[in-house]
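Budget justification note: compute hours in this period were largely spent on complex prediction jobs such as the one shown. Inputs:
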Amino acid sequence: MAKFEYAPAPESRAVVDLKPSYGLFINGEFTDSEGGSAFKSISPATEEVLAEVTEASPADVDRAVAAARRAFNGPWGRMSGADRGKYLFRIARILQERAREFAVLESLDNGKPIRESRDVDVPLAAAHFFYHAGWADKLEYAGLGAGARPHGVVGQVIPWNFPLLMLAWKIAPALATGNTVVIKPAETTPLSALLFAEVLQQADLPPGVVNIVTGAGTTGQAIVDHPDIDKLAFTGSTGVGKMIARSIAGTRKKATLELGGKAANIIFDDAPIDQAVEGIVNGIFFNQGHVCCAGSRLLVQESIADEVEKRLKRRLATLRVGDPLDKNTDVGAINSKAQLSRITELTDAGEAEGAERWDNGCPLPDKGFWFRPTVFTGVSQTHRIAQEEIFGPVLSVLTFRTPHEAVAKANNTPYGLSAGIWTEKGSRILWMADQLRAGVVWANTFNKFDPTSPFGGYKESGYGREGGKHGLAAYVTTGDTK
Amino acid sequence: MSTTVAADSAVDATARARDLLGVTRLTNTALTSWLHGLPGVDQVGAEARAAALGTRSIKTTSKQWGIDTAISMIDLTTLEGADTPGKVRGLCAKALTPDVTDLSTPRPAAVCVYGDMVEIAKDALGADSRVNVAAVATAFPSGRASMPVKLADTRFAVEAGADEIDMVIDRGAFLAGDYLTVFREIAAVKEACGDARLKVIMETGELVTYDNVRRASWLSMLAGGDFIKTSTGKVSPAATLPVTMIMLEAVRDWLDLTGEMVGVKPAGGIRTSKDALKYLVTVNEVAGEEWLDNHWFRFGASSLLNDLLLQRQRIATGAYSGADYVTDDSPSLY
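Corresponding output:
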């Protein structure tokens, strides 16, 4: 038994008031579905049912789009930027006031540790609203082009890995620029979006400006296919992104796509080694590795590979895996059974292809979906675990000898979302950043996000940017009116 | 010069250093390339890691264990120009009976005083208290004195019965890049310590960068320090969590390299139970649980003890008392 056991320190669930079932948030109020069915949202840590949620039908989506169009043609479209900004500030402040409630609910529904939902997801979501609130009355000075104006009604489909944060990334710039929104949260994590609907009511946002429809793939398809949607914003898998791009080809709809990634985290032999180890941990074990920009490929200079591996494994032995609501949990539950199977399949393939598998051997709870922090060494570019996005707490370790080889291996992937560089040499950081085909390059850090900084991918990681002025550009048009 | 220790029983620090560095003669150049070859510390990343360790939530039974462990790790300290025999006796009485309302309270590891107070402290603590006497030496706190004076200062304290010596390094020499001088001073003081354990105060507040803290830690260990210690308490900032974390990484890596354990002592500025628990978490997760013992980790503190006692009483009785329910033998003079 360890000398210093940390006693359970669970965050209280009492702060969250879940209803047994939820309707759809259309035109400023919760409504029942027309012809849709219901599904259950469960806690991935315990498999307990949290609430019943509506699967929106195409008719529901049609109602939502119509409400959004009325709001765009009505009060929201006529409102000044300064007044739109007031609503965004109000939403940001309410999110801060109800931060604990959102953090607990997010950890319950998603399985992520409360330490992250409390310190990352919720504060960053509020920061996105604050940042975009400031832009609402200054768009003329954002360099978006003469006569830049909102698209109209935007359809947004978001993933399950950062449910509230992705919602904020989508809704805040859309509203700041004067669009109205129909948004669909992911089917495994709809609850924080439904709580967010209460925030919108509390903020007195005019009806129809934001409509939240829950559901799975068919609901998403109904949004994508709806003829009165002007612009689509999607974050999710590359497979679904391609389907969306096909669906809207030949239409006037604009789209931004934030898709998968297989980021290289590159450690040179002069790196600050203890911080690099932390960066590796943050890169791939943050949010159970359910991060599109996760540093899932570790490229380490061969001369220090053994040293880094030793230090990394020692560090991983201290990671605490378990109850997402425990304040000392570092790694929570895998979001769904389907995702767990995907991770299991790819890690089995890694073993079969000859990479050496190691995990930290920590005990796992009996119920729910869990996967130990895992490291594969001796990985080659050709292995599936070096090519395919695992989207789980699994690190593939490869080595390199020269900066050119590091760049070649880092770029040798259909993805191009992010990369990390660890070296004490400033000139090398700049040269590497220039060579890497990735939308975000971190230097001596990893997985740091800020609303002022544009985020997005190269190649099969998608197109368009979110955050900063670049993110605003995706929500305005300077083209002819339709 | 006479020494109380036979030459063959002293660690031959220079010979071992030559061996570790792989050189035939220990020069400043050899020391410089060795120390400057240590991996750098990224300030932003190191501080973020320390802050994350500080968010651990230590409750109920863990808190109870942590408080008792922290009490047992305190070097209860008085280092004032105005120290008197009466003040030192009061401090020793407090060390012997930290909480008069609960005699099961652990005693701190040591009292820490100036060399001329060692005899008084030894006398007040008695032979069987298992509370050590630590003495600061080597022209504490500035260290600006000649080598014979520093050694005489050390020997005086050891002969008076000090179990532990807290020396200061020559920060001027360190910052000027004269690592060999710092090495020789530590090695000489270590020899003068005889059986007393040597804590090497690096005065990290004057070293400023984490790279310097890492280098000074390795230099102190190479020269034979039994403990590396942050601060004199006379310079601000004194101990901080990131600095202590860098030092814990150093002793962990030193163990890997040499098979020897070296202790760590943050001193100055740690006043609350909450802070003490953050340090224990950092010890646990960075160096490892072997260091969770007062032989290997100490807090240099004075007011910390009473805050730990208040928390301990709170756990025992379920209610907070107040400052007047713990005895205070070190009130302010002013």
